[in-house]
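User: Fold both of these, please.

Assistant: Here is the first one.
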Amino acid sequence: MAGFTAPIDPAGWTLEAAAPLTVPPGLRYAGARLPTLRATRAAPAAVHVPAAGTLRHAGDVVQVEVSAFRHRDVAAAIPGGLPTFYFAFDPGTTLVPFADGYGVEAGDQLASVTAVSILCAAQDRVARDPALWARQIAEAHGAGSSPSWDAFAAALTGGAEPPVLLLDHTGALLAEGSVEIHVATATATATFTAADGGDLQRVVARLHAADPAQMPLASVFAAGAPVTLRPASPGTTDFQLAVLEDAAHAQRAVDVSPARRHVTLTDLRAWLAPQFAGPKLKDYTRGNTLTPFVNGKPYFTDLFHRVQEAARAGDGGLHLVGGWKTFPEDELADREDPPADGIRLPVSIAEAAQLLADHGGATRVLSPQFIQLDPGSPVETAEIIVVSTVIGALLAAQNIDVVRSDAAGAVILVALFALNTIAVTWIIDSDGRVFEPNKDALDVLNAIPSTVSRLAPHPATVADNPASPPLAGFPYDSLIKLIRHFGFYHTKFAIVGAADARYGYCGGIDINPNRLDDARHLQAGPYHDVHTKVEGPAVRDLELTFQERWKRDGGGTGLAFDPMPDGSTGDGTDVVQIARTYFAAADPSRALDFARNGDRTIFDTMLAAIAQAREFIYIEDQYFTPPEAYRNALLRKVEQREIGSLVIVLPSTPDQPFGEIVREPFVAALRAADAGAGIVRVGYPRRHFTTPDNELRASSGRLLLFADLDASGGVNPTVVLGPKARLPQPPFWFAVEGELMYAYNESTSASPDPGHARVFEVVRGPDTRLYRGGDPATALGPRTRVHKAGAAATVVDLAGIYVHAKMMIVDDVFVGIGSANINRRGLCHDGEIAAFSVPQQLKASPGNPVAALRRELWAEMLDLPASAKPLLEDPIAAARLFDRSPALGNRFTGFGAHPTHLMFDATGADGVVLDLLRLLLVDQFVLVDHVKMFDAVVDPTSAVES
């Protein structure tokens, strides 16, 4: 294990705390104000490199960036991560010659001087007094393993009046604000200025010198009694405080001492918006435990283990809102050997319900109702044929995967996609139930004793959407007279009751077997999602939400178990808010009893968190077509340079019809606001080259070129491939003698050998955008070259990893995980639920759960192993890893790094027929009015948006 050595021999040096210094431009953590150790002596003495790393300088400041891999064991044990040291020498100091990037070893000499200022920054970007960072590095080494460093750390400890540092939520020195100091019977108020450098000792000394009557304390610890600090604030604030030395945390007040004197604080009410729909749900609660799950398998496994616990307890229960589609009989977890008591782990929702029923428990399930028809609306045969044809063409032309997508926003497509008049009439006569996607959730689950499963129709109509065209306009009364409901209960949450214990779950993961992918993403349709478990008093707000929904749509049946009592507490360390979205009804008769004016708490808290961001914002979302207020908030953060990094992760092709009309201009605006600053990164994760799944593997590697292919391919290149029996349907990637190409459509050109080969439209070279995405002008791709007829062609799988998550992390102290996509549906219209959380220890805990989740997510997105953890500790520096080329192993690639956009590409094998269908029906009917279609059907809003 590589160790640290003392930068100076403390014997003969005078060591004292000095005013903070700012890291100069050109160095890591530039602009950070850090506590400073000033070392002086009478005669020159050596200043040494404290650890192996690289040197860089800016003026008279020398930076030692410690090697992450040489010191990975020590770095993992240091609470703030790997340190970076700065040595600020007096002007005119002669340094040992070196060039930027010069590699050094611990103990190498930098200079021989009589004075130097030493600063240290850790990867968590928290400002630490030299005595603290020196002690933490010594403890990370272990006692006695580095005697010189131990002596250095010991020399910094002690002193009657050490600094008392107050830090904001990022760990930066507090620049403004007031605190009350309570000591013995005295109380005084201290107001900070930027010049105080966050040091309460400096504030007290300044105020005491100016007016001893107003500030009776000469120093914080002068009275020799316990000292309590309380932020001085009006009643609308609620500060959370934590002590850096021991991670102790408190509400509104905290004790400090010479051994515990770094206090980080934030106002929770600045992060977590008030409940829009009223006080029934808490604005937030303390004492919770938030456990995130990345991808579906760990969530399902944990859920079923808690159901097993409930069965053992007897009289337990499950409340489940299954998301967009509930698959009750599919196995979602691995089977385990039977335990001694014979209560097996269930692996499906149906098994879970049966297990609970067998042991005295009960299950209640709500699934959203997709198809809502208005009885009595006139429907003519001609209208049915036209609508069915248009919708069929739209589905085919846009390559929509309704099984994988949310399908919220495509309700009209599901409701009216039929083959002929008889089929549509059958749908109408059955009130839509024959094709209802959640029919199995009723039929299977209601057959189980003590189990009740119901469909929940969303009550919003087109009249509740102010962005919708008038009822007499496109497309309602001109073609569609039966459908008026485009809202959707999109929530995915559950509560398990096991005796007195309660476990709540919410997030983006539906009860769907295609969510079973993991961080390796090896399944045929790679899939990424995030969910979370909540334990503690916040579970009650999930319970109340289910109770409200069940009272409305449960058919009068009682709950499986009652909500836990109000005022329940927990022993966790997470502040949690349960937030929701509900529509605002234009007509009070359609209003929800539990949200008469709608609910936009999710939206409000997201905006509050964006406003609080000082370091970075990380977003994963399926659609990312946000309302104007959200767009403006993010743009302002980038334009004003208020954050150092904004990373947005999307699917390669968000399956939101016409979403480009909002998404692409907004992404372009973010990049323009960035203006080369390196703040904004928008992209999607893509799986590395693999062999195709079993369906294609027999064909893979067995195709041939049936015509010569030159190096350029022409303006609209085509490729002739065969034999026909081995060809997959487009789109697909393939390699011809090592050159990767993308076949996105079958060409209408005649095949030179119609019996054996087909012609495909392809993209090649830079147009594939494989290695540098987003901007076609700088795109890179495989080198094109000549290929002769008869050359071997190999189908490869280069799938985008479908990002279904709806989550946000801010500054490693705020996380939001829920069902609400960042669009008008998610934030202003549909039924949604989310858990927002701030750790009560803020950044004081070495196990900061928000930072741990970010590192896990980034390792997955960047395809980095666990050993690369030190590279991900600093979110600003680590964000640059998203720029790494996919050719070097990165999964993340710039949005737009796709050779052609599937949402508007015909990808079937029908050639002229499908093109004609698009021209006559889709292009001339839908695309002309695509803005209306988007506003009315795909992404409706409600009056609550304003």
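And the second sequence with its predicted structure:
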Amino acid sequence: MASLKPFFPRNPYLLLRLAYAATVVLFLWICTQFYIPGKGFTYLIRFGTQRNVPAVIPALGPGAINHYEEEDSYGYDAQYYAQIAMRPWLGNPALKRAVDSLPYRARRILFAWTAYGLALGDPSRALQIYAVQNIACWLALATLMLRWFPPVNWGNFARWFGLLFSSGLCLSVRGSLVDGPSLLLIAAGVALVEAGRPWWSAVVLGVSGLGRETNILAAGAPAWPKARTFRAWVEFVVRALIVLLPLAAWLWVLRGWLGNDGMHAGNNFAWPFRAYATKWSNTVHQLRSEGIGSVAQWSVLMLIALTAQWLFFVLRPRWNEPWWRVGMAYAVLMAALGDAVWEGYPGAASRVLLPMALAFNVLVPRGARWWALLLLGNLTVIFSSDFLKPPGREDYHISGPRDLYMIAKTGHTVEAVFNDKEWFLPERSRFDYWRWSRGSATLALHNPQDFAVMADISFDLKSNDERHVTVNAGDRVLWSGDTIRTLRGVVVRDVRLEPGDTVWRLTTDQEAEFPPNGDLRKVAFSLRNLEIRVTRRAEITGAPVGKP
């Protein structure tokens, strides 16, 4: 056994610390994938081309600040907060037209102000800063949580990692939402309570209420006065007012400035557990109808995780613990959440209840018999990577001898050209890249050389249903078969690519349909992992051919 000692570090904490460091490096690497040249990190904000409002502010109009827009999408909440951040003058008529409900969105003004302030009033910089605020707050939260999860054992690492890569926090990062920065402020407020700084805690929690209204639920972190004296009670009441007054004053200002229209919370709240039960019912029905592999399986894991957290706080009261008081407050909130928070995939519940998740990871006792509960409460880690998929930038890969597929003087290469009227924009995951078709579609294989080349072309086909797809080059059938939810690999060898375009037609026997995950696009099939491997120079004579 002595010969094995050199393979193990003398410092027993070295591997553990490397795991912490590797987690941060992994997150930063993921974040770099969201950068798009010319558009920065605006992919994270999720602007949509199909809007619920007629326009955007002039700074984002045609010919103005370049930014990423999701095709055939209504976008998401951050597109409204980001526009406020670019110029937070709420009386601006253009802003009123561009934001779906300005009185409602303006209640969460804090992180629009921080972006605008850090940008020194420059709208373009404010847009980029707003997009990456969640990334900065994730890093700050990862550092702050070392207070509760220091790198001394793997149990602490599991709790720390489980929160940082929970679906709620990943959703906040992916959508530049207010939940991640809000969690940082709440965690800072509780840390100040534990450090014996209740006044500073009240200030931090009061400011956090301007980021999201439910943040003031963390006001329960400070305990009731231990000393039953008049002064102690006065101090307690004053600290409570410090938490409540910033939000109350801002709401009063907004009511006078913008009026009362749009100030209500809509379907955000409901009778206790009514919307929660509806979510369970809808999820089970979807799982039965669509089976394993649908997004319903992830909704089940999310519901199990939140239920485990809720039961922990209800069944194991610890009134003297600041984190228990915070977690219990959000457990009550969970019961009252409405359909608007639970509906859809993935829904907003997991990010709205992030403080409960952090309190859960802090308070679950150490020890082997608690591991099952800890794992149940962090099940969303299993699918959180689904929300951190980078934007698609590639349609295909090209390989082979460089002098055959590339013209050295111009840099032009053999390429696949997609018609955007027949295909949606490229997408990708960690390992795959693809385009969804809008129905039957064409694909042009362009050869810039003045001579023909031979190539092997491989790709995968996948659809949300069972359908038949045929690949034709003119009248010649290159491949024909059925596609299903699992990948169907296709290889067409010895394809002759004449100078110019060789056009393929991919025909399907069914119309495009809405996918089961709530996507607003009608899609037919996806062409995935297209690779063009140029093999040799073609003979002078011959016609474009290809054999499967």
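The mean pLDDT is 88.
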